[in-house]
Write a structure and sequence with these properties.
single chain, mainly alpha, 0% strand
């Protein structure tokens, strides 16, 4: 008969543990309760305030309900002594986060005062006066710029520069204008009709905005001179036409050629001669071509086809 071996203390403990597990499984107690996760509410920062590394670790531990080992807790508590100064990279991050947000710019935002707005208008007006060669307008704008006050410093510098440039331009244009009217008056005195006509056109353009009494006198004298010249030329043309009408039906070819040549020159100088006289001039041109042969090159070419 076999004897049952005696169990030692360790063997007895194992047997008891195994028996306890069997009983627990039969009773449904084999499951172990899962620890319930703790939830805590923390106040979050705005995300812009600078935060040290230790404080950041502490915030994460509190927010996520972490449990640090004893070594980790000790390291966190000793972090200020372990790394008292942040690295350059960390400093740049801290500075970027702690810097004030840049001021926002709103499109169309106008910060000009009423005086600044008026100053800008005067600058544009002076530029227009110079482009249109209006001395009167430029002089008026320069006077307004001189009287304008309480303007921003940068805008005031622009006004001062524009005023200096504008005054120099006015002085130059006034001198040129005096020369123009002096030349016109001299041309009238010398009875140079072509030169008077050209200078008179320029003088009227220069005086379109403002005209002094002296300038008006010169313009009127030039107009009167050209009117008298036109009347004299028209009268001379009528005289030549009458002379041709008095010729016999079969005139001398050389005489006819000379008179028609003079007629064509007079018609060209007279300007607008009207359709009736234009037709008569053309008829005499055609007659001399048939009877005395064509005019020599250059003869009668100045006669324009004028309208009445």
């Amino acid at each position: 008969m076999t004897e049952t071996p005696q169990l030692s203390g360790v063997d007895l403990a194992r047997v008891a543990l195994r028996a306890a597990k069997v009983v627990a499984q039969k009773n449904g107690g084999g499951r172990t309760a899962q620890p319930k996760t703790r939830t805590t509410s923390v106040v979050r920062r705005g995300g812009r305030e600078p935060m040290g590394l230790g404080a950041a670790i502490g915030a994460l531990v509190t927010e996520r309900a972490w449990e640090l080992p004893a070594a980790g807790a000790t390291l966190r508590e000793r972090w200020a002594a372990t790394a008292p100064e942040p690295t350059p990279a960390v400093q740049r991050i801290i500075q970027a986060r702690s810097a004030a947000a840049p001021a926002k710019w709103t499109p169309g935002q106008n910060t000009d005062t009423a005086q600044d707005t008026r100053a800008r208008e005067l600058l544009r007006k002076l530029l227009y006066a110079r482009r249109t060669e209006s001395i009167a307008l430029a002089d008026s704008v320069c006077r307004e710029i001189s009287d304008l006050a309480s303007v921003g410093p940068r805008l005031q510098e622009q006004l001062d520069a524009a005023l200096r440039s504008g005054l120099l331009w006015i002085e130059k244009e006034v001198g040129a204008r005096r020369g123009l009217f002096a030349s016109l008056e001299q041309a009238v005195a010398e009875k140079q009709a072509g030169k008077v006509k050209k200078l008179l056109r320029q003088a009227k353009t220069a005086a379109k905005d403002a005209c002094s009494e002296e300038e008006s006198r010169v313009i009127d004298a030039a107009d009167g001179f050209l009117t008298a010249i036109a009347a004299a030329r028209s009268k001379h043309l009528n005289t030549l036409l009458d002379d041709l009408d008095q010729l016999p039906s079969d005139p001398d070819p050389d005489v006819l050629r000379i008179k028609v040549r003079e007629l064509l020159r007079a018609a060209s100088e007279a300007g607008s001669i009207g359709p009736h006289r234009q037709a008569k001039v053309e008829a005499w041109r055609e007659r001399v071509r048939r009877t005395a042969g064509p005019l020599q090159p250059g003869q009668g070419k100045r006669l324009p086809l004028l309208q009445g």
